Amino acid sequence: MDSSRQIKLGAIISYIAIVFNIIVGFLYTPWMIKQIGKSDYGLYILVTAFLSYFVMDFGLGQTIARFLSKYKANNEPEKINQMLGLTSKFYLLINGLILITLIVVYFFIENIFIELSPVEIEKFKIVYLIAGGFSLISFPFMPLDGVLIAYERFVLLKLCDIISKVGIVILMIIALLLGYKLYALVAINAAIGILIIGIKFFYLSKKTSIKIDFRYKSKKLLGELVKFSFWVSIIGIAQRLLINIAPFILGIVSGTEQIAIFSIGIIIEGYTWTLAHALNGLFLPKVSQLDTQKNNLHEITNLMIRVGRIQLILMGLLIIGLVVLGQEFVVLWMGSGFSESYYVILLLILPGFVTLTQEIAYTYLFVINELRYRAIIFVGASILSVIISFILAPHYGAMGCAIGIFSGTMLCHVIGMNFIYWKKIKLEIPRFFKECYYSLIGAFVLTLSVGFLLNYFLPAETLIRFSCKVVLLSLFYIISVWFTGLRADEKELFKSVLLKLAAKFKNK
Questions:
Q1: Phi/psi of residue 110, each to 5°?
Q2: Contact criterion met (CB below 8 Å) for 213 and 85
């Protein structure tokens, strides 16, 4: 299969995986929590979040894909084998250090998570051993995805994602119906993960000429790898410290129920991020091309405004909908015991009203190799978030952590990054905000007002009534944005997309 077909099919499968993941999340998650209990679900989230700090690829996955793609393009198979031998040994070395760390941590679990009951501590230890064992098995195989990307095997990569998601859900439903609980949830995730590793490894051994050279040594190449992946690694660590550390903090100062409440916010924030970044990376060639032209910063700002407005129009409906209808949605979806999750969701997604519209600026940092700015900002946001969370979480639980994350994101990601884009990178940020937001604010305020009136006069006690409110609010948003917010070229863009979809449907 040629490269372009691999990319197209990979993109289609990726969108299918996104839709499946969202549908399963809304239908399966509340049922699963009901089956295993809020406390056990909180334990599962805690272990997953806790282990994520020990098992990450430190940016080497992207780095390996970059180097292998270069060697493959230059037809240098020997260098591919040498690099994989070098990185495999490096991963095994890190894996040994992780093993020692996890063993030491195991003996101090009671001292770390002091808010867990003795029964929860025992359960946590068993889950920790299962999940930790899988993490140690899977870690040395992390470069597999980088190899598949370098060899443009996008279809297999995305199919493995689908197989993993579908397999876990089907096996978990069977296990829960048979009466198995928390341990089955963790064991099935581990078993499917090992199966996926086996599929990828078997495919690469049969379909490529890769022969890993474990004898190869090169301090120079290892230094290049570490240098190139350094800032990506810092960003990755800081991202985990920003949101994923919240369950860890809550496990120390609040308990498993608050972890479960916070986890609903993580799920919705994750869906919002996934939808907003569905087109991630598609503008990299365009930004790279603009960077070589005269008056490039002006043109990149123009592209940032065009793409940002489309993102704002699409994500505006989702964010406004969650603000207005989110509380009713959470109660209908998860039950009244999770009503506090609504405020967690708001605090996690509201900064996205700005950050999710600035994909082009972030892409430009990659093009000009200035990721250090984003890394420093991410570290600052994470430190601020952790400090505020530790202060507030003992009194306010999940809300305390959400306030910490909101504060760190607003001060660093929204204000700090826009200062960097404007003063350091020299993008026209004041013009971006004026042209991106100004004409759409009226439609947003009108939709919010209508939404609050709907809540007052039409409270949703059933799913049918709630669905009617969603349809009414969506129609009002579309009409108000169309007549008060969209530019002529944007109207033509949406018209052309609708006409193409209508033509395809008619031909079928």
A1: -60, -35
A2: yes
CB distance 415 to 399 below 8 Å = no
Half-sphere exposure of 80 (CA within 13 A, CB side): 22
d(CA 115, CA 410): 30
Q: Is the Cβ–Cβ distance between 330 and 341 less than 8 Å?
A: yes
Give the alpha-carbon dihedral of 476, 477, 482, 483, to 10 degrees. Answer: 60
- Short-list 272, 342, 337, CA closest to 311: 272
pLDDT tens per residue across span 139-167: 888 878 878 877 777 778 888 888 888 89
CB contact burial 212-249 (16+ within 10 A = b; e otherwise): bbeebeeeebeeebeebbbbbbbbbbbebbbbbbbbbb
| Annotated domain spans of the chain | 1-217, 251-508
Is pLDDT above 90 for 388? Answer: yes
SS3 368: coil
What pLDDT is attached to residue 5?
Answer: 67
Closest CA to 2 of 143, 145, 154, 144: 154
The whole-number pLDDT of residue 282 equals: 47
Across 393-403, average pLDDT: 93
What is d(CA 124, CA 42) in angstroms, rounded to the nearest whole number? 10
- The answer to whether 377 touches 417, Cβ cutoff 8 Å, is yes
Which pair of structure tokens corresponds to residue 288?
């790279």
pLDDT digits (tens, 9 = 90+) for 67-96: 777 777 778 888 888 888 888 888 888 889
pLDDT in tens, 177-212: 888 888 888 899 889 989 999 999 898 888 888 888
| Residue among 166, 159, 164, 106 nearest 132 (CA) | 106
> Any idea which of 276-285, 476-485, 496-505 has the lowest mean pLDDT?
276-285
d(CA 308, CA 302): 10
What would the mean pLDDT of 461-466 be, rounded to a whole number? 86
Cα–Cα dist 171/38, whole Å? 20
Confidence at 281, pLDDT banded by 50, 70, 90: very low
Rounded Cα distance, 502 and 505, in Å: 5
As a whole number of angstroms, the distance between CA 78 and CA 148 comes to 17
Query: What pLDDT was estimated at residue 92?
Result: 87
How far is it, in rounded angstroms, from Cα 16 to Cα 13? Answer: 5
CA quadruple 140, 249, 229, 133: dihedral, nearest 10: 0
Q: Greatest CA separation found in the chain?
A: 73
Residue 37: Cβ-neighbour burial (10 angstroms; 0-12, 13-18, 19+): middle
